[in-house]
Amino acid sequence: MNSHRLGAIYELQPTVNFIGYTEADIGTAWGPRRIPDYQIFYVVSGEAEVWYGQQHFHLGPGDCTFYGPQIPHKLVIKKPVVYFSLHFLWQHSSPVPEHPAYKIEPCSEDELLRHVRTDYYLDIPGQESLHIPPVFPAAVIEPYLMRIVNEYLNEQPGYAIVLRALLTELIAGIVRDRLASRPHSIERMKIDPALRAISGQPEKNWTIPELAALCGYHVIYFSSLFRKCTGASPKQYLISERIRKAKYYLLSGEKAENIASKLGYASIHYFSRNFKEETGLTPTEFKQQEL
After folding, report:
1. Of 59, 69, 85, which is closest to residue 33 (Cα–Cα)?
2. What is the CA radius of gyration of the chain?
3. 242 contact partners, CB below 8 Å, separation of at least 6
4. Cis link prior to 32 (omega < 30° from 0)?
5. Where is the HTH araC/xylS-type domain (predicted)?
6. Could you tell me the sign of the dihedral formed by the alpha carbons of 37, 31, 151, 96, in that order?
7. Which of 25, 28, 155, 231 would you label with 264, given CA atoms 20 to 30 Å apart?
8. Are 73 and 67 in contact (CB under 8 A)?
């Protein structure tokens, strides 16, 4: 199996190239072929099969298949289907659709059979990289797909920007759905007592030995494991948790001085410095954003 990293979710600039919502009869096939962009093929009703190399996967209602540029593949309809076909790019400077049709190329059955399947990974801050397999259930995206179809077909002024926004929503929907459905990794479960302690008492000046003891590990091993699972040191994670709660308190109308005290800061100056390091804004500037 090959793996390919799609980048960090917050850095994406996705572009819809084409979307269709239509039907296909038994025996309809696309491929073997290669496409120039990424595709999500989502089955509303009926059945289909997708082939990657010598592996093939069944698609039923609510399932989708996902693959990227130049990946040999073949789609075959097994029962009459109603489906969405979305072609897109994860990263493109322009949101204006570029129809992929003229860049789709046929490939031979031999090329298809020689291909080793590619799995994709999306980087999510504070999480392990999200695995996006070739086929997965994704009923959550159907409403997003319909909205994208309507915007794509109507081409109202500014439609390209709206398409980018809707596609971003769709991607976020996939991410949330897959994160919610996957079990916590064994490694993350090992540090769960520390994560719950920080979340429950962010005002406490937790030390690494205290957090390591909660999990039953040596300080060095715990610190390494914590960074691997969260992407941050225990100290930085604690600061981020404090600032996350500080945002809520600020938007609820509390004064910065009270928030600093509530979250365990010895001075408003230290709180303000942490807040700006995390958000790029002072507490006062952040509060003004809601206006």
Report:
1. 69
2. 24
3. 202, 203, 263, 264, 265, 274
4. yes
5. 192-289
6. positive
7. 231
8. yes
Structure tokens at 212: 């390591």
Residue reference for tokens 């919502």: 21
Query: Distance between the two ends of the chain, CA-based, in angstroms?
Result: 50
CA distance 52 to 76: 12
pLDDT value, residue 291: 46
Q: Which residues of the chain have pLDDT under 70?
A: 1, 182-185, 289-291
Residues 6+ apart with CB under 8 A from 99: 17, 18
Query: Containing H/E element for 106?
Result: strand 105-106
Distance (Å, whole) CA 215 – CA 82: 50
Taking the C-alpha atoms of residue 69 and residue 104, their distance in angstroms, rounded to an integer, is 10
Q: Are 39 and 110 in contact (CB under 8 A)?
A: no
Distance CA(75)–CA(62), nearest Å, equals 16
